Amino acid sequence: MKSEEIKELFSLFEAAASELEGVECWSARELQDLLGYSKWENFEKVIQKAKDACTNAGEEVAYHFPDVRKLITKGKGAKDEIDDILLTRYACYLVAQNGDSRKEKIAFAQNYFAVQTRRAELVEQRILEFERVKAREKLSQTEKQLSGILFERGVDSQGFAIIRSKGDQALFRLNTKMLKRKMGVPDSRPVADFLPTISIKAKDLAAEMTGLNVS
């Protein structure tokens, strides 16, 4: 495929994208033309294979392939509605993977949506990592405040460690020492450095509640 053809297809695929409730999607009817399928019946078979692949991957078909109605203009300006399907980026990727790879447009789409899907995954991963860092910082601040409150009540660092261990016992059914051993956390590192975001937030909430109870 020549460079000019690739650039043209890229522009066409970008222009065909729309957004519904914050989700980027493509009309199956429009994608049919972009992928070089002249008959809707033939393209529906490809979509069904893509739906099966979606189910096998454990994804929700209704989310990635919602049925809609599309308004078209017929001869003499008459309007009519036809069946259509909105396809998420992931759905388009599956459609391309199940299409006729001998078609140049299918080969382009396979690469186009694979790159776009991977790009979205990287963005999502960075957002999740950022959220985890913010949650960890919030927990550190909460524990620092709690430590100060307990110190005023005559509780030293060893006593605070015992209270925190009891908090871990309540949350995870394991005290801090046992939790570290189970997770392979070095003794010198806080267990929170190795917890998922939701568990960090749970520890933060527990620490906040403890602070309210003793203040």
Sheet with the most strands, sense and barrel status? 4 strands, antiparallel
Q: What does the average pLDDT come to? A: 83
Output the helix-strand order.
Answer: HEEHHHEEHHHHH
> Class by helix and strand content?
alpha+beta
Report what the structure shows.
The protein has 215 residues and is α+β, with helices and mostly antiparallel strands. Helix content is 66%, strand content 12%. It contains 9 helices and 4 strands. Strands 1-2-4-3 form a 4-stranded antiparallel β-sheet. α5 runs antiparallel to α6. The chain is elongated, with a radius of gyration of 27 Å. The relative contact order is 0.08.
Record the SSE blueprint:
Elements: H1 3-16, E1 18-20, E2 23-27, H2 28-34, H3 40-56, H4 61-64, E3 67-73, E4 79-88, H5 89-97, H6 104-152, H7 157-172, H8 176-183, H9 197-214
Antiparallel strand pairs: 1-2, 2-4, 3-4
